[in-house]
Amino acid sequence: MRSLRKSLHFLRTLSRRLSTSEHPLTTASVAQRQNELFEQEKQRQLEMVKRIEKITVHHIGPTDSCTLAMNKFLSTPYHVAMHFNENYLKRSALALVNGKPWHMLQPLTEDCELRLIHFKDDNPEEVNEAFWRSCAHMMGAILQNAFREDVYVEPARAPNIPVSQGCFAYDVNLPFKWEPSPEELVCLSRLAYELTEKRLPFERLEVRLSIAKEIFQDNEYKRAELDSAEDDRVVLFRLGQFIDICAGPMVANSGFMVPHRFSFTCVHHIDDYLKSPNMLSRFQGTALPSEFPCHYHTWNLIEDRAKKPVTMDTRPEGKS
Question: Is the pTM of this model over 0.85?
Answer without folding.
Answer: yes
